[in-house]
Amino acid sequence: GGGDYGKPSDFLLLSPKDQIVVVDSLRDISLWAAPLPGVSSLYDRAVKGWRGSGTSTSSFGTEQWETYVSVPTADWLLVGRVSASQILSVFDESMAVLAWLNLAAILITCSFIALFIWVVLKPLKNMTHKVHSMAAGDIPLQKLPVVHEDEVGSLVQSFNLLVDQLHETQGRLKHLAHHDPLTELPNRRLFTADLAHSCALAMRQSSSLALLFIDLDGFKGINDRHGHGIGDQLLKQVAERLNEGIRKSDRVARLGGDEFALVLMDCKERENLVAMARKWINRLSAPYLIVGREINIGASIGIGIFPEHATDIETLIAKADAAMFEAKRAGANTYCFVGG
Q1: Catalytic: 258?
Q2: Crossing angle for the helix pair 228-245 and 219-226, nearest 10 degrees?
Q3: How would you label 208-220 residue by residue, b for 16+ Cβ within 10 Å and e otherwise?
Q4: What is the pLDDT of residues 243-263, one digit of tens each?
Q5: Is residue 67 helix, strand or coil?
């Protein structure tokens, strides 16, 4: 029976002392001869006291894995064996299972990564789309909502800060485009637009308005004697006096140099306009105190009435301007209506 030792089996129960196989789990017989010395190197080592696992070659020439353990209640050996082909088969199956598990893990990981990227980048994509629409002029420049308090949220907050700064800059530029930088009064451009609006309103209400063109008398001499710094301070004080003396419905502007304009709404009676013209002449002719110096100037005023003297703003402006020069030729520091 020793020559048959080495066939694949589940386990053997051996008695080294008696040199017999007590039980072979794959055989119907028991108590057959143990392998002779030299047949199984692992068995030879186990007889000498070694316990453990290792590979050996069976009598059939096949590789197998053997494990030797002691039976505590007897001086016997329990040997578990499995062929290398079985191990490789199990290994191949395990590797296949591991491969599928790895593939599943990779797919799940990629799905989570894709979901994470979508969640993170969706606000960024939306922000980019809106910024492009703003740049193209499809929608007005505006702040974006802060959806997440993360890096994208910080980027949105930075963009909103930039929008605030741009709006502030645009506001300053718009103000500069429509206002005189020295006096802060509306300039000729804004004045013309306001006058057109006021004339249209007066036309709808079947009322009238008066346009007063004001030119300072002796301003060039002030600049020549005291310098442009004093002249600028004088213009600023003139603008303050004009602003303080008008009604809420009226408009005042600096047209350039020492020339100003007033639009007085709902003015029909010539006597009222005469009184107002004299008031403005007296107000503007009062002494100015600038850097410890008393400065005196006068004011010439030309008066045009809409729609009595003109039904369009270009003609009204031209006639009021001409009336102002008539006042200067009449001796200055006085007023003159369109047509005398």
Answers
A1: yes
A2: 140
A3: bbbbbbbbbbbbe
A4: 998 888 899 999 999 999 999
A5: strand
List pLDDT tens digits, range 19-54: 777 777 666 555 667 778 877 888 888 888 888 888
Both tokens assigned to 317:
């402006």
Distance of CA 35 to the CA centre of its chain: 84
- Of 100, 93, 97, 71, which is closest to residue 12 (Cα–Cα)? 71
Cis omega (within 30 of 0) for bond into 8: no
- For 293, the 3-state DSSP assignment is strand
Overall residue count recorded for the chain in this entry: 340
**78-126 confidence digits (pLDDT tens):** 788 777 676 666 556 666 666 667 666 756 765 665 566 556 666 666 7
What's the rounded Cα separation, in Å, for the pair 83 and 26? Answer: 14
* Phi, psi for 314 (deg, rounded to 5): -60, -45
Structure tokens at 186: 């509306």
Instruction: At 273, give phi and psi (nearest 5°).
Output: -65, -40
d(CA 282, CA 269): 20
Q: How confident is the model at residue 168 (pLDDT cuts 50, 70, 90)?
A: confident
Residues 6 or more apart whose CB falls under 8 angstroms from that of 214 comprise 242, 259, 260, 261, 262, 280, 284, 299, 300, 301, 324
In the set 258, 266, 312, 321, the catalytic residue is 258
* Amino acid at position 312, single letter: D
Helix (H) or strand (E) holding 45: helix 41-47
Distance separating alpha carbons of residues 35 and 49, to the nearest angstrom: 16
